[in-house]
Amino acid sequence: MLPDLNYKEAVFYVMSGTGNTYRVSRWIEEIANRHEVKAKVVLIEDADFSNDFIQSPDFLVGLLFPTHGFMPPWSMIKFLFRMPIRTNVPVMCVATRGALKIGSLQIPGASGFATFFAAILTLLKGYRVKAIFSLDMPSNFINFHWGLHPKNIDKISNKAQSRLKLLIPRILNGQRIWFTRNNLWEMLWCVFLFWLVPVFPIAYLIIARMFMAKVMFSNNKCVGCGMCARFCPNNAILMKDAGTKKRPYWTYHCENCLRCMGYCRKKAVEAGHSWAVLLYFITSVPVITYAWAWLHRTLSFYPVINGYWTIEVVYIFNFLIYIIFFLFAVFLSYRVFWYLIRFPVFNTFFSVTTLTHYYRRYHQPDTKLKHLAGIKKKKQTL
After folding, report:
1. Which value, in Å, is the radius of gyration of the alpha carbons in the chain?
2. How far apart are the C-alpha atoms of 30 and 37, rounded to whole Å?
3. Cα separations (Å) of 230 from 217, 235, 255?
4. Phi and psi of 122, rounded to 5°?
5. Domains of the chain, with CATH numbers?
6. Per-run averaged pLDDT (10 residues), the chain, 382 residues
7. pTM of the complete model
8. Which helix (H) or strand (E) holds 230?
9. Bridge partner residues of 117 (DSSP)
């Protein structure tokens, strides 16, 4: 037991898709309780800022979330903005990142700007940032790669637990966790990304919300039970009539957390790779060229001032036209796609031509759906 602990109580706000971050929060809670720090885990959808924590220097607030495109997920970003302004309340920012294991080699993940974003935002709200770090957990990006072997899952998870047993007591004892090799690794990723593609984190969040959601579908194994819709953390799945049963329909609220795919008992949820290829070509139609031609032909419109093309006008116009076309094309195409998969022949074609049909699925082995359901969802389920 550590002497002279700095904190007496703690609350850990958690956003989790397939259970990795939730499990990490429970490990931290266990360590805190063993050191006589009264801790509790709260899913962000159940947060009650007026009762969850008090403004006190011996009360620690933890923010835990998975990494989405080197940023926190949309839902966590919105939660950070909703957090009330506090003065000198200690806060800890933790991001889980997907690690892979090939033989004896463990390839670390990268959270990039995720923890720094959370730390900066809470700092601006008056909190005292006491700890920033990211933690490797088994990669759950199962719409892009095969789920890890159970032995590798155990090895990565055990290593994460061992690291927490070293870090958390130091944090509870009042030490600051800022300047570490872990954060240097993340900073290097930030420099690389912002130098190579400055808007990558924002672009990924937009693409994940608009494009990745619109390649999700249910295969012929789907029985229409609605579990994916009921337990979706963002209420992003609707159950719509499809002949004699209902099928899930993914909306723009989807954040690609993959809870639906990881926990589906029938392995009915797919990410359509073949459909994604078709959707890419649909959204790549050179509509901007046609738009310029129509404007020139119909309205004699030329963005020229004093004999020179105004590049700013061209760029802005091109961007607006493409965004409008992209949103319209994705929305309309997905409705057609969802209608087609109601027919077994089309469903079978898109299923067997997508890699997720053959991938091993993943969710954190010790975490069940009921653990990830907030109080409101538990009441709805009952």
Report:
1. 23
2. 10
3. 16, 7, 15
4. -70, -35
5. 9-196 (3.40.50.360), 211-382 (no CATH)
6. 66 94 96 91 90 78 92 92 89 94 88 92 93 94 90 94 94 88 88 75 72 89 92 92 88 90 94 90 72 66 55 67 79 90 93 93 93 67 48
7. 0.87
8. helix 227-230
9. none
